[in-house]
Amino acid sequence: MRKSEVKPIFNQSFADLMQLGDKADDLMERDAVELLPYGVDATFRSDTATLTQDLKDFPTDEELQGAAAEQTEIKNESADVVKVLIRSVMVRAKNAFGESSAKYRRFGTKGLDELTDNDLLKCGKRVVRTATLFQVPLSAKGLTPAMIAALNTKVTTFDDDIDAQDDAIRQRDNATEDRIELGNALYKKITELFDYGKDYWITRDEAKYNDYVIYDQPAGNDLFFDGTIAGMTTENVLDATAVDEYLVGVQLRIKNTTAGPVIGGLFFYTAMNPGDGWSGLGQNLNPGQEATITLGAADYRPYFNIQNQGPNEQTWEVEIL
Predict the structure, then answer these.
(1) Per-residue pLDDT tens for 9-48?
(2) What's the structural domain count of the chain?
């Protein structure tokens, strides 16, 4: 079964996420007593710190991209040398057999400069074999066994350099997914912690509550929405006629920010009308759960609604990324 594409659930750079991990550690130290009843103990703090450090130690995309570029340069240099050595053979074959001869065409070097890496590799091997076969008549034009051996060695090196380039590119691709998965794991840990912090401080200390707000949105930002929805009700969040950014292809971060367990979660879904209930398509998020979704043409509707399936009041966030 093919692995699905890994997408980030966080809306920060990796550098900012690392700093958020450090902030989480500071808050766990400051509010250790207050957070302990939520299960935020030494193990929780250690796990969060480990994820933060692992992300810091993970090779950046710039490093891996640089390594791939370096391998590409090495491979290209090998290709140039192979072409030079092939031409050295072919100028002798031309004068030994003539360009229109079957023996010359047997080398198969037409369009040498336009060959792909794989075709150049096959061409190089073919020239080695053919030059070895015609070594006696070509020797009269100055071709030596050492020259054939040098071409063979460089073709082998070129083959290895192609593999090394492929490995570097593949390593970067794999690392991209691994880095996102690591970032997602850290972000889940942080959001869990920050949910606990907000729940404790919301009625006790506004400044400390604000310390646990991840997305600090400036006033008037029409791309970020949050609110409270009563039990067993439906609420419209986005209206295409009012929010220009809400269109086909839009990417949304959605979250059930309710603190503590409730009966039933929240359904996030597109709809034809602002009062339409959930039709079975969309995402059901329980308290603390978050997702990032992209609305393609088949999924898009002019309204984006939330429906509370339980009797408890719940809170939510929706952000256009």
Answers:
(1) 877 788 889 999 999 999 999 999 999 999 999 999 999 9
(2) 2
The residue type of 43 is: T
CA atoms within 13 A on the CB side of 163: 6
DSSP bridge partners of 292: 253
What CA–CA distance (Å, rounded) separates 213 from 211? 6
* Cα separation, 104 vs 113, whole angstroms: 18
d(CA 216, CA 109): 63
Cα 227 to Cα 232: distance, rounded to the nearest angstrom: 15
> Which structural domain, as residue segments, surrounds residue 311?
217-321
How far is it, in rounded angstroms, from Cα 252 to Cα 244?
14
193 and 18 Cβ atoms separated by less than 8 Å: no
Q: Is the pTM of this model over 0.70?
A: no
- Do 125 and 231 have their domain in common? no
The secondary structure element, H or E, covering residue 251 is strand 251-256
269 and 196 within one domain: no
User: Of the candidates 243, 262, 264, which has an alpha carbon nearest to the alpha carbon of residue 252?
Assistant: 243
